[in-house]
Sequence to fold (257 residues):
Amino acid sequence: MVRGNQMTQVDFAHKNIRVKMLETADELYQTRRLRYEELILFHRDRAEISFEQSYNDDDLYCDHLIAIDTDTSEVVGSYRLITRKHLKTINKFACENNFNIDDIKKQSYNVMELGRAVVKNGYRDGLVIKMLLSGVLKYVTQNDIRLMFGSIFFPPMEKEAFDKLLSYFNMSVSKDSSLQPYAYEPYLTLNRTPIEALNLNEVKRTVPPILKAYISMGCVFAKSAHLEDKVFDAPNILIMLDFTTMNKKFVELMTRL
Fold:
């Protein structure tokens, strides 16, 4: 049994997809296998990482939102959710391995780390991710969350393209002086290329799809990117989304079924 926040009630369905809170050991196993096969093997091509190396016991004490194909009973998508309540057991947020987030942790309002986002290949027509995001919003409402944050990992790309992408993100770095998390070494600051030298339409085409959605929702970025995650072996960036200032019209459009 997963010992997360059992008070949260999220359970709804559309067509053959059901979104709910993870509850059973079998659902946890399926979720871990999905993350391993999609995030480690498919996207990172890291066969040297075993299934057992791809997760830890923190999963037992977090909340997980999962999407299930009701025709096959298969877990086809998931998010992992960590709030301050979970820190009593797991001690720190997952992104703290790569980022100093003291500024986030000292905020007086409720915060949540959203991570380990995955949708199974063959289910990426938009329905599953829309339903998962709808589930996240239900969770946020029930738990009175104001700020969501998490790290996004990048696919392999040439250095010049990566520098341009970071410079595009630099346009949306957090301007709140009380909210300035930063990456640990090795890191890169986001201001890599002068904005006037960027072809924005070209750069936007290189933004990972889920990050495009977060940007449209109104997310802001930490001022630096971390370069060498031990498991995913990929650079990653920290985003933050304040639900009091997010683009509500886009969120409604994004989650409409």
Remarks:
- Residues 25-42 form the longest helix (18 residues).
